[in-house]
Design goal:
3 strands; three-stranded antiparallel β-sheet; elongated
Length: 74
């Protein structure tokens, strides 16, 4: 039943994707990280990798929906 509801939701509203917003350390510049994630787990794993660097700082994770498939995503 959940699969049917998910497919209907995807059809009406589009697929849900996650993107990580990062900031450059020592500046006021913010960017979208280079990857779009199909799952929240994948986005959180990317967040952990970013938090281990000194060059960038994690700002937030955003979600969005689109009817157009993101290249390279299932």
């Amino acid at each position: 039943m959940k699969k049917i509801v998910r497919r209907i939701t995807e059809r009406l509203f589009g697929r849900k994707y996650y993107a990580v917003i990062i900031g450059e350390a020592g500046s006021d510049r913010y960017d979208l990280a280079s990857q779009i994630h199909p799952t929240r787990c994948s986005a959180m794993a990317h967040r952990q990798r970013i938090e281990q660097t000194r060059a960038y700082m994690y700002v937030t994770t955003i979600t969005f929906r689109t009817h157009h498939p993101i290249t390279g995503q299932p």
